[in-house]
């Protein structure tokens, strides 16, 4: 339409290029953390994730095993071992002191003080010999430049799920989310039907009030409700947070559903009324089944919102093992293990996996809901 | 696992409770005012007057308790001391306007309010326009939209990794690695005042662009074809068509996107809490309120800050209500 002949191909290229650039910019942050969550913990801290497919070269200092464990071999006392404990790698160079950490190639024999020699093989095996018997428990320092092949592992996930308490938080989050998503739907659907299809004084005022309540900041509600919940004994209970999320989610639920239900064809509802159906029957037999798309939209919204919420959970639930949700746990990890990226990355991905799954499978409903909820006065 | 059983039981009880309430209350209404017999007409009228309120009652009760009552209770609390028991008049407000952190929060919130809605709407509009012109546009849209599903805390982890600063050895944060490539010394970006505010804003812009894109893309598709065809015939360039034909027709929607993001910005708290916790000059109102509530344990001051947020939201609330009423009539 607006592609004028001749300009078209150049413009299309530019557009394609711009979109690719934007998509890369928007996905790289997530992708970087995803890649990191599968990397070996030592590699995360020594090389950027974008280098995760190339071997990383690093300078390491290790200590040999305790000198007193030396064994007599002929005239010499010998100490043997491997500089790579659990990891694997390849030695490029080694040295015996910090001034020249790369002085010798693998396999060469380095002369040390007191008639000792050291040799380090490519695979990390070292051999230290001495004329006299070696004593002491402090290992001899070995300087090496090693090349570690890329290593991907599921260890991080195993660790966060089973020893950092993420699994427990996962269950806790589910416990919060499911009832908090399901319960508002019915309550809102009834109210939405009344606001859309029943005549009564004050209806317009109520709709306006709902629109107003849509934007009331949650911060307003926290202290009064916390005091209220404490006074009736549900201050740090799941029941309290279910009720809170239900209350906070209702304005959007009623608003979305009312818009949708008000748009249903008048003839269906009126012919049902003429046939003698009561409002309750109309609601149950006609409105509910027809409103499925709107119900699904709201359910997805509420699910994502509750799953991702930190504020309400921090206020209305405790931070005990039985109650800490994923977002709360993640925030705690950020504070206490700020530099342990392998833990943070894996934890973050456990917590965003479910919303991402919901997002990609039900994007259609989400988009529809967004449009119904926001495009007004356009 | 017990917990999940408890949750499932709550769903069942909740759903059945709701259905039972609506069913029984409707039944009761029909029994008290039967739509037959000698007073059928009068009974039907009375029942029709009452029925809407039966449908509305649970929702209104919850809304009243969870959203309306707190507004008034907060006003009352803001006139009381830390414990909420002793009357202190306007002391909290006096404290607020002399508080250094509050001024910093207002300044930062102001910055957030200008930058985030503007940038999100701009990038959203760009993405909407560009993706509508290419074959793989829907995939591109999906990917730009994806951050919407990620929690603010999750996004904070993702971006903190980008801003990571080591100081010694190799930098593992993308930003510092890029800085090195361009010959700039690596920085601890989170402590770099005042720019750290913008690094936090980027996180929210990254999340909200997808939202803006989806809404604006729908609006762009709703533009009547004739207007664009007419412009093409008149020899307008694609850029002119965009600026002079398309954008003016979707002003209303741009306004909606802008205000929606504005409200979100006023409430933003997770990102600041998780990334800097308001240190290094990055405090914002919502986090200040949280600070006074949880660490200061001063309900009076926290309520006062919450009321400031409410006051800032109010103009948008009025605007929304007006729009909604105009649409209904």
UniProtKB/TrEMBL annotation, chain A:
InterPro entries the UniProt entry points to: MetI-like, MetI-like_sf
SUPFAM superfamilies: MetI-like (SSF161098)
Pfam families, per database record: BPD_transp_1 (PF00528)
Membrane topology: Multi-pass membrane protein
One GO term of the biological process aspect: transmembrane transport
Gene3D superfamilies: MetI-like
TM segment ranges: 12-35, 176-197, 204-226, 238-257, 286-307, 343-362
Coiled coil: none
Domain ABC transmembrane type-1: 170-362
Protein's UniProt keywords contain Hydrolase: no
Compartments (UniProt record): Cell membrane
Keywords (A to Z) from UniProt: Cell membrane, Membrane, Transmembrane, Transmembrane helix, Transport
GO (cellular component) term, any one: plasma membrane
Family affiliation: Belongs to the binding-protein-dependent transport system permease family.
UniProt protein name: L-arabinose transport system permease protein AraQ
UniProtKB/TrEMBL annotation, chain B:
SUPFAM superfamilies: MalF N-terminal region-like (SSF160964), MetI-like (SSF161098)
Membrane topology label: Multi-pass membrane protein
Coiled coil regions in record: none
Transmembrane regions listed in the UniProt entry: 6-33, 53-72, 110-131, 143-162, 198-220, 250-269, 299-321
Localization terms from the record: Cell membrane
Family, as annotated: Belongs to the binding-protein-dependent transport system permease family.
Entry protein name: Lactose transport system permease protein LacF
């Amino acid at each position: 339409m607006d592609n004028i002949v001749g300009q078209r191909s150049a413009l299309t290229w530019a557009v394609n290029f711009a979109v690719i650039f934007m998509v890369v910019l928007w996905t790289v942050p997530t992708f970087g953390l995803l890649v990191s969550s599968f990397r070996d913990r030592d590699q995360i801290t020594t090389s950027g994730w974008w280098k995760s497919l190339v071997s990383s070269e690093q300078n390491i200092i290790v200590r040999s095993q305790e000198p007193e464990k030396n064994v007599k071999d002929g005239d010499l006392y010998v100490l043997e071992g491997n500089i790579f404990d659990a990891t694997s790698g390849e030695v490029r160079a080694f040295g015996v002191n910090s001034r020249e950490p790369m002085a010798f190639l693998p396999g060469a024999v380095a002369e040390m003080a007191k008639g000792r020699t050291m040799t380090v093989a490519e695979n990390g095996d070292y051999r230290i010999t001495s004329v006299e018997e070696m004593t002491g428990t402090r290992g001899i320092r070995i300087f090496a430049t090693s090349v570690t092949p890329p290593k991907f592992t599921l260890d991080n996930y195993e660790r966060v799920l089973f020893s950092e308490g993420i699994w427990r938080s996962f269950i806790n989050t589910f416990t919060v989310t499911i009832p908090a998503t399901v319960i508002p739907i019915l309550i809102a659907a009834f109210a939405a039907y009344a606001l859309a299809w029943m005549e009564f004084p004050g209806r317009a005022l109520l709709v306006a009030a709902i629109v107003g309540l849509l934007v009331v900041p949650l911060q307003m509600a926290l202290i009064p409700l916390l005091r209220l919940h404490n006074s009736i004994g549900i201050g740090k209970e799941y029941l309290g947070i279910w009720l809170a999320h239900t209350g906070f989610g209702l304005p959007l639920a009623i608003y979305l559903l009312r818009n949708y239900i008000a748009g249903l064809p008048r003839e269906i509802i009126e012919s049902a009324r003429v046939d003698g159906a009561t409002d309750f029957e109309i609601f149950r037999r006609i409105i509910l089944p027809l409103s499925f798309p709107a119900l699904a939209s709201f359910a997805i919204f509420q699910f994502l919102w509750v799953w991702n919420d930190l504020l309400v959970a921090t206020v209305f639930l405790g931070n005990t093992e039985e109650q800490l949700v994923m977002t709360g746990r993640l925030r705690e990890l950020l504070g206490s293990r700020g530099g342990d990226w392998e833990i943070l990355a894996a934890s973050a991905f456990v917590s965003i996996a479910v919303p991402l799954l919901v997002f990609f499978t039900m994007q259609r409903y989400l988009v529809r809901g967004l449009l119904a909820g926001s495009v007004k006065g356009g | 696992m017990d917990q999940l059983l408890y949750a499932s039981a709550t769903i069942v009880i909740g759903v059945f409770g709701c259905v039972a309430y609506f069913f029984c209350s409707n039944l009761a209404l029909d029994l008290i005012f039967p739509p037959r017999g000698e007073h059928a007409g009068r009974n039907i009228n009375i029942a029709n007057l009452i029925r809407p309120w039966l449908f509305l009652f649970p929702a209104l009760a919850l809304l009243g308790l969870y959203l309306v009552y707190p507004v008034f209770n907060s006003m009352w609390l803001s006139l009381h001391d830390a414990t909420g028991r002793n009357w202190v008049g306007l002391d909290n407000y006096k404290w607020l306007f002399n508080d250094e952190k509050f001024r910093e929060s207002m300044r930062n919130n102001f910055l957030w309010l200008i930058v985030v809605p503007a940038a999100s709407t701009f990038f959203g509009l760009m993405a909407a326009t560009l993706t509508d012109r290419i074959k793989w546009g829907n995939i591109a849209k999906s990917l730009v939209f994806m951050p919407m599903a990620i929690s603010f805390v999750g996004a904070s982890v993702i971006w903190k990794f980008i801003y990571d600063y080591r100081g010694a050895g190799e930098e593992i944060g993308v930003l510092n690695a890029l800085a090195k490539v361009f010959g700039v010394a690596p920085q601890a970006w989170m402590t770099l005042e005042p720019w750290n505010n913008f690094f936090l804003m980027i996180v929210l812009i990254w999340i909200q662009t997808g939202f803006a894109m989806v809404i604006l893309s729908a609006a762009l598709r709703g533009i009547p074809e004739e207007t664009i065809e007419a412009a093409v015939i008149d020899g307008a360039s694609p850029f002119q068509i965009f600026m002079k034909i398309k954008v003016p027709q979707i002003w209303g929607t741009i306004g909606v996107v802008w205000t929606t993001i504005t409200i979100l910005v006023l409430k933003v708290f997770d990102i600041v809490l998780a990334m800097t916790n308001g240190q290094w000059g990055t405090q914002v109102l919502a986090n200040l309120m949280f600070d006074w509530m949880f660490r200061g344990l001063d309900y009076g001051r926290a309520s006062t800050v919450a009321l400031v947020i409410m006051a800032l939201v109010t103009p948008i609330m009025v605007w929304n209500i007006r729009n909604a009423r105009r649409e209904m009539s």
